C-alpha cells in the first residue's frame, strides 16, 4: 500500500514539475520576446533614416501578400453574401444584406482574417529568413562588423509589417464588400440602392471603420514581432528553423484571436 | 616578446549550462604573427574565437584586444575595436540577399563616409587581392563554388584593412588546389596588411605550414604550445597523437566498453 | 530586385491601401451623410429618458437634424436634462415638442422634434418646454394589466350597482372609454 502511494506521489510530483518547468519556459520566452520588442523600438531610428531598407521589406511582406489577400477577400465576401441572404430572407430582411456583409468585414473579418493570412504568408517568410540568417552566421558576421543586426535586419521588417497590415486589412474589407455586392445584386437580385444606402446608414466611420484600422494595427504589431522573435531565437539548425516557422503561425493565430476578443470588448463598451 | 600583445586571454573560463568548456585558459598573440589554435572537434576553439570577437562572454577571465579590455570598455571603443577586426566564418556567412559586390561593399558602406566611386574602386581592389576578377562581382552567393565563397568572404573580412584577421576552419572541405590558394592568401594578406592572423582549425598539416606559433587546446586549457617545429618533435603523448594522427593515445578512439563478444553474450562485468 | 521596381510596387501598394480606406469611409460608411456643420445647443428636460444615449440622433419628420450631446441629472427637480445640438440650417419654433421614440420594435431610442406653431424660434441655450418621456416597457405592461383588471372588475360592479342603484351600463362604458382614451394620449403617439 505504501509503495503504491509513494509511486503515485512520485508520478504526480513529476507531472507538476514538468508543468511548472514548461510554464516557466513559456514565461521566459514571453519576456525574451518583449525584450526584443523594446530593443526593436529603441533601434528603429535607422529604419526611417535609411527608409529604403523598410521599403524593401514592405515589398516583401505587403506587396507579395496582395494576391492571397485579395483573392481570399473576394471569396469571403461572396460567401458572406450567400449565407447572409440565405438567413435574412427567412425574416424578410434580405435588403439588410449590405449591412451584414459590411459590418462583418469591417469590424471583424477584415482585420482578423487578414492577420491570420499575414501570419501564414509573411510571418513564416520572415521567420524562415531570419532563422536562416542566424544559422548561416550572417547575423554574427554583421555584429562582428560593428553593425547592429537589430537595427539593420529586425527593425525594418517590424515597421514594414506594421505599415502593411492596416493596408491589407482595408483592402480585404473593401474587396470583400465588392464580393458581397457581386453576389447580392447582380446574381441574387437584391436592390442596388437598398444595398448601399442601408449599409451607409448603419456603418459608422468612427465606431466601425476606425476601430477596424486600430485592430489591424495591433494585430500587425503582434504578428510581426512574433515572427521576428521566433526567427531570431530559433536554434541554428534545419529542424530549429522549421519548428520556428510552425510556432510563428500557431502563436500568431492564437494571439490575434485572443487580442481580438480583448479589443472588441473595449470597443463595444464605447 | 616584449611589446604589448595584440590579443591576450587571461584565465578564461567558459561554461555552457552544465558543461565546462574552458578552464583557466591563457594565451597571447603578438603583432605580425600567424597563430594557430588547434584541437579536436568540440574542444571549444570556435568559442574562443567568438569570445575574442566579443560575440560571447566568458564566465570568468579577461580578454584584451590592443590593450583594451573587451568587456569593460564603452560602446564607442568596442565599435572602434570591431572596425579593426576581420573574421572569415566557417561557411563564409555571406549575405545571401546581396551580390558579391554588395557583400564586400557592406562594411565600406556602413562607414557612411565614402562615395560610391571610391567604394567601387576598393571593392575591385579587394576582389583582386583574393585573386578573383571583376566579372564575379555581380554574382549572387548561391551561384558561387565553395572556394569562391571563402575567397569573397575573405575579401569582405579585409575590406576595412583590419589589424587582426581571424579564420574559423579556413581549410575545411576544400580541394587541394583551393587549400593551397587559401594558405598563400593567408600568408600574403597578413604580410601585405601588416596584420596579425589567428587560425582556428583541426587541419594540422596546413596550419603547421603557415603558422608562426601554435596553441593546442584540450580539456578546456592549453595542453601545449610552441612553434610548429618544436611541436613536430614533441614527445608529449597528446601532441604526438594529434600531430601524427595516431588512432589511439591519450585521446581514446576506443571508448571503455565491453568487447563485442562479451556484449553479444551479455556478460555484465567490465 | 532593383530599387526602382521595389519603390514602384510599394507605391502602388500604399496607393491601393489608401484608396481602399477612402472607399470604405465614403461608400461603405456614413462619412458623406454624417456631415453636420455648425450647430446650436438646446436643452430639454424629461422625467424618464429610457435608454437614450449620448450621440443618439435627433430627428424631425424622419430626417436627422442633430445629435444628443449630453445627458445630465437635475437633483433639484429630479429629472433628466438632455442637451441636443441642432444643425444651424434648421430652425424650430419655441413651442416644439421633444419626444423620445424608439427605432423599430426593440431598437435604439432617439429624440423626435415636432414643430409647434409659434413665430419665435429656438436659439442657442434655449429650453424646450414641451417634452414627452420615453416609453418604459415595464410601465406599459403594468398599465396593460391594470386595464385588464379594471375591465373585468367594473363589469361585475356595474351589475351589482345596476341592480342596486340602476346606473346604466352606458355610463360605466363611457367612463371606461374616457380613461382608455386618456391612457392612449399618455402613452403618446405611436412611433413614426
In short:
The complex is a heterotrimer of chains A (270), B (270) and C (192). By secondary structure, chain A is mainly alpha-helical.
Unreliable stretches of chain C, pLDDT < 50, 5 or more residues?
166-192
What's the main sheet of chain C like?
Answer: 8 strands, mixed
Distance between the first and last residues' Cα of chain C: 63 Å
Structural class of chain C: alpha/beta
Strand content of chain C: 25-35%
Mean of residue pLDDT of chain C?
75
- Please give the most extensive interface between any two protein chains, plus how many residues each contributes: A-C, 32 and 25 residues
Task: Indicate the percent of residues in helices of chain A.
Answer: over 70%
Q: Find the count of extended strands of chain C (DSSP E, 2+ residues).
A: 8
* Quaternary: heterotrimer
Measured distance between first and last alpha carbons of chain A: 61 Å
Nearest-integer average pLDDT of chain A:
91
**Order of helical and strand elements of chain A:** HHHHHHHHHH
Main sheet summary of chain A:
none
Q: Whole-number radius of gyration of chain C?
A: 27 Å
Layout of strands and helices, then pairs:
The complex is a heterotrimer of chains A (270), B (270) and C (192).
Chain A: H1 2-42, H2 45-49, H3 51-61, H4 66-88, H5 97-135, H6 138-144, H7 149-188, H8 192-202, H9 205-233, H10 238-269
Chain B: E1 7-16, E2 19-29, E3 34-38, H1 45-53, E4 60-65, E5 68-69, H2 75-83, E6 85-88, H3 100-110, H4 116-129, H5 146-157, E7 164-168, H6 176-193, E8 196-201, H7 204-210, E9 213-218, E10 221-226, H8 228-232, H9 237-244, H10 260-265
Helix pairs in contact in B: 3-4, 3-5, 4-5, 6-7
Chain C: H1 3-28, E1 39-46, E2 57-60, E3 63-74, E4 79-87, E5 97-102, E6 109-114, E7 127-128, E8 130-132, H2 137-164, H3 169-187
Parallel strand pairs in C: 1-7, 2-6, 5-8
Antiparallel strand pairs in C: 1-4, 2-3, 3-4, 5-6
Helix pairs in contact in C: 2-3
